[in-house]
Design goal:
The protein is an all-alpha fold. The protein has one domain. The longest helix is centred in the middle third of the chain and has 39 residues.
Length: 69
């Protein structure tokens, strides 16, 4: 993984326009990650609520089948 200081040095070496595009991509990736985390949290809460309603746990085999693993 690249160190922050190295990343900043590389950004400083770029033109302003190119650096702005790189920063924009980083912001987009951060937003996508936040959305994925929110979706994962919602799914986990839904699964917990389902478990509390039914008291039934999902076996690891069933979970792997549902996830296609």
């Amino acid at each position: 993984m690249i160190e922050v200081a190295d990343a900043v040095a590389k950004l400083e070496a770029l033109s302003e326009e190119r650096a702005a595009r790189v920063v924009s991509l980083i912001e987009d990736l951060a937003e996508l990650e936040a959305r994925e985390n929110a979706e994962d949290l919602a799914a986990a809460r839904e699964a917990l609520a389902e478990y509390k309603r039914t008291g039934e746990a999902v076996s690891l085999d069933d979970l792997e089948k549902q996830l296609g693993v």
